[in-house]
Amino acid sequence: MKGNQRIALTKRLLQEGLIRLLEKKPLDKISVTELCGESGINQATFYRHYCRF
């Protein structure tokens, strides 16, 4: 259960960070580094959730 809560928190933080950045600039100008910094999420965490190799 704790893992699910942590995943939900990570996704919520990323969504909220993206919304804040979108108020300032278009999507194609937002980098992963910038999104992670805005969201307070490590880049490795971002890639773990959103990139499947």
Q: Would you mind describing this structure in some detail?
A:
The chain is mainly alpha-helical and 53 residues long. It is 70% helix and 0% strand. The chain is built from 3 helices and no strands. The protein has helices at 2-22, 32-39, 43-50. The longest helix is centred in the first third of the chain and has 21 residues, at 2-22. The protein starts with a helix and ends with a helix.
Task: Give the key terms.
mainly alpha, 3 helices, globular
N-C termini distance:
26 Å
Proportion of helical residues:
55-70%
| Total number of strands | 0
Structural class: mainly alpha
Strand percentage:
under 5%
The rough form would be described as globular
- Main β-sheet description: none
Q: What's the alpha carbon Rg, rounded to whole Å? A: 11 Å
Q: What is the residue-mean pLDDT, rounded to a whole number?
A: 92
Low-confidence stretches: none
Number of helices: 3
Order of helices and strands: HHH
Quick summary:
By secondary structure, the protein is mainly α.
Write the layout of secondary structure elements.
Layout: H1 2-22, H2 32-39, H3 43-50
